[in-house]
Amino acid sequence: MRPIVQSxxxxxxxxxxxxxxxxxxxxxxxxxxxxxxxxxxxxxPFGFEAPERILREMIHNLPSAQGYSDSKGINSARTAxxxxxxxxxxxxxxxxxxxxxxxxEMITMVLQAFVDDGNEILxxxxxxxxxxxxxxxxxxxxxxxxxxxxxxxxxxxxxxxxKITENTQALVVINPNNPTGAVYSEEKVKGLVDIARRHNLxxxxxxxxxKILFDDAxxxxxxxxxxxxxxxxxFSGLSKAYRIAGFRSGWVMVSGPRxxxxxxxxxxxxxxxxxxxxxxxxxxxxxxxxxxHQSINELVLPxxxxxxxxxxxxxxxxxxxxxxxxxxxxxxxxxxxxxxEVYPIKDDEQFVIDLLRAKKIxxxxxxxxxxxxxxxxxxxxLPSVSDLEDAIGRIASFLxxxxxx
Length: 405
Ligand code: PLP
Known about the structure:
The chain has 405 residues and is α/β, with parallel strands linked by helices. Helices cover 38% and strands 15% of the residues. It has helices at residues 20-30, 52-61, 75-86, 102-114, 130-137, 157-162, 186-199, 222-226, 262-274, 280-290, 296-300, 305-318, 348-359, 385-404, and strands at 36-37, 97-100, 120-125, 141-148, 154-155, 168-174, 202-206, 232-237, 250-255, 323-324, 333-334, 337-338, 361-362, 364-365, 377-380. Helix 1 (20-30) packs parallel to helix 13 (348-359) and helix 4 (102-114) packs across helix 9. The site of pyridoxal-5'-phosphate (PLP) has 13 residues, from helix 4.
């Protein structure tokens, strides 16, 4: 019998962050072990509940949310998104907003509509790996530009310039960044936009963590600097700051010279139509979320739960010999480095599996984020301070055994 195989379109698609390590974690759980999962930025399982007014609004609208909506989204949600960016000095309207089942769907949809075989898309390293995978699925090549750990994980603008070829079509920016927690300065954002302007690249700016900012960090919307002359797609949504990852609600907003992009936008609308619409009940959360009180602020202020957890993780990781971690200024992660002189790790996926088996802690290996060297891992800072103390204590004791070899 002919084997049933996956399509050749998946040939270059890799998504290791949910690969063999997760399978091993599930096997251990099935065998009765309790695994502390520090591998996924999903706020709800760590006791971060959605603001009540968002739940109330969704419940209130549920009876009238049974049918398909307009494929680009319900009017109240699209208007709320447009108003939000108008408040950041952007000249956009309801027509510029597409609502999706989370940012994930919009990333895939935009890349399917935009990328042609052989196109090159500049993607940060490390990255949120959906970007690289979705570029490959669309037939393009993700060309990784380096973010510089020695410079607070800021993008290396010279490296970006050096990697531009005649096939380069777009520049992806992830700010605040997953997995590094970097929040780019105004100067860096301007530098990125300037590169796009000079090389005629489309900007794709993933800003899903824009409200998860610590200390004095300020988020700068890429689109603000792209102005009228650089075509920019801004992605954001409700999964993180509003803690409703499971409801699936996000958007992409178009700005800049739309007249030059009519053909692409027709393609994006075609793909939106093909999947009918995004989950309608979750669209009703958008207007309520974006207006009024922003409960995320209490979590990120000094002493707030997210900020206290970030501090704990950062301090305890840096206290381990041979481990260094740049202080995250936003998002929900630490991305520590394991000094290769102290820990000569050849295969970081195996390192994470060994840690999992020995200490029942699940983290994610750095190469899973398209980081080129096996010397980093990512830890989620969502667990409580006491769980983080326990987890990082176990990581420290595992690393001690490696130093003793
Ligand atoms: N973009 C980044 C940078 C993320 O870290 C994530 C989720 O972790 C997403 C997009 C996906 O978000 P959504 O839940 O809106 O699909």
